[in-house]
Each structure stands twice: as C-alpha cells, then as structure tokens.
Design brief:
Blueprint lengths: L1 H24 L5 E5 L6 H17 L3 E5 L6 H8 L7 E6 H6 L16 E16 L8 H10 L5 E4 L5 H13 L4 E4 L3 H10 L4 E5 H10 L3 E5 L24 E9 L4 H14 L3 H9 L3 E2 L4 H25 L1
C-alpha cells in the first residue's frame, strides 16, 4: 500500500512541471465564448467585443457560440458541463447567476459558485425608470405618491417573469410599499415599446432599451438605478436619492467551468482588466449606455454573493405570494 502511495506521489511530482508548462503555453488552440442569448442582443455585442480583444491579446482565435434558451440557463449549463481546460468560457449575465438559481420556477441544474469560476466582470449597465408621457408624474417621488394613492391602478412592463427588470420593480414595491400590476413581455425591447405606445404605465428598462427612447422624448425618464448619476442621462437623479440604498445594475462577465486551472483564470482576468481601459471598447459600450468594469476573480465572487443576499429573499417572498 505504501508502495502504491509512493508511486502516486512520484507520478504527481513528475506530472506537475508538465502541467504547469501546459498552462503557461495556454492557449494552443481556439477558445470558445458561449453566449447564453441570441445573436444581436447586448450580451452578444459584449461577447464579440471581448472576443476580439482577447483574440488580439492571446494571438489565438476566439469563437462566439450563441446558445440561447431559458433566459440564459441553457448556455450557462453548457459551460458548466464543458471541460475545465481553459478553452470554454461563459459570457454570463446576472440573471442566470444571481437570480434564476434561486427561483423554484426555473429549472437550473447548477450552483453558480460551486460549478463556475468567476474570471471578471466586463461591463455594467443600469436601468432607467421610464413612464408614459401622458402620466401625471414628473419625478420618482411623484410616482410613489401616485401609486400609493391608487393601489393596483398602475401597471409595469418587464422583460419577462423572473427577469431582472421584473425583480427590480418587485424590490421597489417592497422598499416603498406601493402596489402595482406586473405585465411580462418576451424582451426588454418589447416592454419598453409598450411604455412608448401607452400599453403599460411604466418600466424599469435596461439602459440599452430605455436610453434611446428617453433621448428621443418618446417616454419620460424619472431616475436611474445606478449608485451614481449616469453620464448618459446626467439630468436624471438616482433611485437611491428617493429610496435609500436602492441600487440595481446588470452585468456581463466571463466565467469558466469550476476546475479551470487558476493560472489560466488569472491570465484571462488580467486581459479583461486591461480591456476596461481600451478607448474603442469604452466608446462602443458607452454608446449602449454601459460602462466597462475592472474586477479580480475574488471581487467578482464577492459581488455575486452580495447579489444573492439581496435577491434570494425577495424571490422566495414572490414565490410564497403566488
């Protein structure tokens, strides 16, 4: 038995240098970025922009593979199931990582921090509170007052039940004590269009959907959900100026299968941090109302834990309410 143990130990020592050399040489072949959403959306834009930058930095092709389905769960699960060899990564978003795994109505077969390794956040984007132009409210405080005086009269659109724009308004209701009616749509674009047409009263729209409509005057912007005022809508206050500590931002980030070698994760993380300062990347993301972000793997993990602490109790409350 001791002989076998000695052989195993010797084998491990013998293999260690070759394993380290393989990681140092990474990558030796094309890398795949799995996008858990369809082509043409914001996450797809971020993925292709990131893939192009990483490809230049590493000198190897980076392939973008769109695996849409179940609000990002299908593509994320595909990365969980992939080999942890540094050649498959997920361009993940907050929904499939920090909210969906805790929704009993979602069929999620993974634990976000057990089965995936955080690499780094690439971009962050706030929501903008928009209302129909004919609504008798000009500020967020007026929206709250009107909703309190007319419980159940106002309705709001979201990008689907269980989507972040749905949970944002649920959190807003919990913090303010208002009662409004949820109207889910299949996408954020459709939800925003419903505010423009007057089909719904208001929405917490992702900046990519709401920003163009606010600038065009098609809807009235009341506030943004970021911690600080947005440079893209500088005249709008933040929600937390009216509702303290209310901050909601969605993100796109790179994650890897959980047992991906640490040196590979570190190397890619360093590239992503440098990418955040690239003028072209900042310009393209800025046009979509997004900001580039710098995080280490540890900072990203801490962020996910903080988000889970915020959203999990709310999701449980919504589930029990049904």
């Amino acid at each position: 038995m001791k002989h076998v143990a000695g052989l195993v130990l010797s084998l491990g020592i013998a293999l260690a240098p070759s394993m380290l050399r393989a990681q140092d040489a990474w990558p030796t072949r094309p890398i795949t970025f799995v996008v858990p959403y369809g082509a043409g959306g914001y996450t797809d834009l971020v993925a292709r922009l990131t893939a192009r930058y990483v490809e230049k930095a590493l000198g190897k092709p980076v392939i973008v593979d769109n695996r849409a389905g179940a609000g990002g769960i299908v593509g994320t699960q595909a990365v969980v199931n992939a080999a942890a060899d540094g050649y498959t990564f997920c361009v993940c978003s907050i929904g499939a990582i920090s909210t969906a795994p805790f929704d009993p109505n979602q069929k999620v077969g993974y634990d976000p921090l057990r089965d995936l390794a955080p690499v780094g956040v690439v971009s962050s984007i706030a929501q903008v509170v928009i209302v129909r132009n004919d609504q008798p409210v000009k500020t967020l405080a007026e929206l709250v007052s009107y909703a309190k005086a007319n419980p159940g009269k106002l309705n709001y659109g979201s990008n689907g039940a269980g989507g972040l724009t749905h949970y944002s308004v649920e959190l807003f209701q919990a913090r303010t004590g208002i009662k409004v009616v949820h109207i889910p749509f299949k996408s954020g674009a459709l939800s925003t269009a419903a505010v423009v047409s007057g089909e719904v009263d208001f929405s917490f729209a992702n900046m990519t959907d709401g920003l163009p409509q606010v600038k065009a005057g098609s809807v009235r912007g009341l506030a943004v959900t970021s911690l600080n005022r947005s440079p893209y809508l500088p005249d709008l206050p933040t929600v937390n100026e009216t509702v303290p500590d209310f901050v909601v931002e969605t993100w796109n980030a790179i994650m890897a299968p959980s047992k991906t070698p640490e040196p590979i994760i570190r190397k890619l993380s360093e590239i992503l941090i440098k990418m955040a300062d690239d003028p072209e990347v900042k310009d393209i993301m800025g046009k979509a109302g997004a900001d580039t972000v710098k995080t280490t793997p540890e900072q990203f993990r801490a962020q996910i834990l903080q988000e889970i602490a915020q959203w999990k109790p709310l999701i449980q409350e919504i589930t029990e309410r049904k």
